[in-house]
Write a structure and sequence with these properties.
Strand content: 15-25%
Largest sheet: 8 strands, mixed
Bound molecules: histidyl-adenosine monophosphate
Helix content: 25-40%
Oligomer: single chain
Shape: elongated
Strand order of the largest sheet: 1-5-6-11-10-9-7-8
């Protein structure tokens, strides 16, 4: 029986890995530059965390979680996102008493049982960050700027930033009543999920995938028109801050986000290149989440970027990714004595940080040349008994065929300093 990768998963093959490394390193560098430090959280958590954190009226929790009982009878869920786990860790590890803001970034896999399509997988990767303890709009602006700096450093051109405010529990409660008045006469035509959402979380009805095309959804009152004074002021602060540093944005009242923890600012970076799954990065503020996961009242904000979608966008924009030459030099040994010399030289060079290869398959000289050429190794050194006797080898640059004669005794330091 042929076994294939499970639906919605994909192998990231060695040939494309350098792109992932470059993106991950650039993201980490940018986060470090802003004062963030990396956190690693578990791949699976207690199911309650996501029910309480992400929200049990969301599609993610209701339909998409990989949940199972472990052998000890605990209900376990593969993380569908990173925020809930970081919040749990923030509380559990006493980080609530650290000086604010406490800032962390992560590079994770996440799992959602979704309908698979271009840019939508069941196992996917996210670069994300979370910042705790800062209430004002300044940090909202700063984390949005992190995404822009990352895109700039990766060489991506403009990707549209959409922002919205979805208010606080106070303005949300008043708005929910307005929304219910709007939907009430039309409930017969709504999907079963929305019938359930009507009482529990009417805001979710605006985000319903099944009912999205209905006029009643499209014409629904917008939360941004019903913000309380504090939330309106906060949103004005975010807009002003973005303008101050020159970041363009569009206000998109339809962004409600697919997870329940958001308050006030929500935002998405959207591209047309990734097809229907155009949201490369999404995030926002979650001022009540720490409390609802059992901690004190600490405001929070963050975002996550879909790495697969980011790389699709980079490819569509033809962003050049330089493939690093990890292996700089190939040593072809033409006799037993030469092979012994090559093995020792390779060992010394690698210890000095110079990547190199030797034959490991008993290939004849010609086959070794062919291998080195195919692998694209930029320098070649042929070592035979003559070279060992004369104490000199030639280091050949494959690009132009030029050769430099080097004393065998100097070979390691020559390679270290010149290749
Ligand atoms: P999210 O919008 O659910 O937010 O996911 C963030 C990003 O992950 C999306 O914009 C998308 O690029 C990518 N993504 C989501 N689902 C899939 C999928 N099935 N296949 C491929 N890529 C996907 C969150 O996860 C929040 N935790 C973000 C956040 C952090 N908010 C505050 N802090």
């Amino acid at each position: 029986m042929k076994i294939s990768a499970p639906k919605g998963t994909r192998d990231i093959l060695p040939a494309e890995m350098y792109k992932w490394h470059r993106a991950a390193k650039t993201f980490a560098d940018v986060c470090h530059m802003y004062g963030y430090e990396e956190i690693r959280i578990p791949t699976f958590e207690d199911t309650n965390l996501f029910q309480r954190g992400v929200g049990d009226t969301t599609d993610v929790v209701q339909k998409e979680m990989y949940t199972f009982d472990d052998k000890g009878g605990r209900s376990i869920t593969l993380r569908p996102e990173g925020t809930a786990g970081v919040v749990r860790s923030f509380i559990e590890n006493g980080m609530t008493s650290m000086p604010s803001p406490v800032r962390m970034f992560y590079d994770i896999t996440a799992f959602r049982y979704e309908n698979v399509q271009k840019g939508r997988y069941r196992e996917f990767h996210q670069f994300g960050l979370e910042a705790f303890g800062s209430e004002g709009p300044k940090i909202d602006v700063e984390i949005i700027s992190i995404v822009n700096v990352f895109f700039n450093k990766m060489g991506l051109k403009h990707i549209a930033l959409h922002i919205n405010s979805i208010g606080c529990p106070k303005c949300r409660a008043a708005y929910n009543e307005i929304l219910k008045d709007h939907f009430r006469p039309h409930m017969d035509s709504m999907c079963d999920d929305c019938k359930n959402r009507f009482e529990r979380n009417p805001l979710r009805m605006i985000d319903c995938k099944a009912d999205a095309e209905k006029d009643i959804v499209k014409n629904a009152p917008r939360l941004i028109d019903h913000l309380c004074d504090e939330c309106r002021e906060h949103f004005e602060g975010v807009k002003k801050g973005l303008e101050q540093i020159g970041i363009d944005y569009t206000i998109d009242p339809n962004i409600v986000r697919g997870l329940d923890y958001y308050t006030r600012t929500v935002f998405e970076f959207v591209s047309e290149n990734v097809g229907t799954q155009g949201t490369i990065c999404g995030g926002g503020r979650y001022d009540g989440l720490v409390e609802s996961v059992g901690g004190p009242h600490v405001p929070g904000i963050g975002f996550a970027m879909g790495v697969e979608r980011f790389l699709m966008e980079a490819e569509a924009q033809e962003v050049p990714f330089e493939k690093p030459d990890y292996v700089k030099v190939y040593f072809a040994g033409m006799s037993d004595a030469a092979s012994a010399f090559v093995a020792k030289t390779c060992y010394e060079l690698r210890s000095e940080g110079v990547g190199c290869e030797q034959d490991l398959c008993g290939r004849a000289f010609r086959a070794q040349m062919k291998y080195a050429g195919k692998a694209g190794i930029p320098y070649l050194v042929v070592v035979g008994d003559d070279e060992l006797a004369s104490g000199k080898v030639k280091v050949k640059k494959m690009e132009d065929g030029s050769e430099t004669e080097v004393a065998v005794s100097e070979l390691v330091s020559y390679c270290k300093n010149n290749l």
